[in-house]
Write a structure and sequence with these properties.
- This protein is mostly helical.
- It has one domain.
- It is 52% helix and 7% strand.
- It has 4 helices and 2 strands; from the N terminus they run ααββαα.
- Strands 1-2 form a two-stranded antiparallel sheet.
- Strand 1 and strand 2 form a beta hairpin.
- The termini are far apart.
- The mean pLDDT is 91.
Length: 84
């Protein structure tokens, strides 16, 4: 965890997870994906050590919604598929 994470802490979860929250969470996980750097695995978006705060928040929201890893992967694939 970066020092900024220690200061700011975790992002709060919504009281109950709606389908809109799931969309935001999938977006957070997709945008804040892991990327290999010479010194460490870092967030592709903000260069924080992976998983960054937004990636962790997204995963926690998806876990709270009860989605399996397979379901999450399918939602990510839908999000990243080219639009026709």
């Amino acid at each position: 965890m970066d020092s900024i994470d220690e200061i700011l802490g975790e992002l709060p979860l919504p009281p109950y997870v709606t389908s809109e929250d799931v969309g935001f969470a999938i977006r957070a996980v997709t945008v804040h994906a892991a990327e290999q750097w010479p010194d460490a695995v870092r967030c592709r978006n903000d260069r924080a050590v992976h998983p960054c705060r937004l990636h962790r928040w997204g995963r926690r929201v998806l876990d709270q919604r009860g989605l399996t890893d397979r379901q999450v992967q399918l939602l990510i694939a839908e999000q990243t598929a080219p639009q026709r």
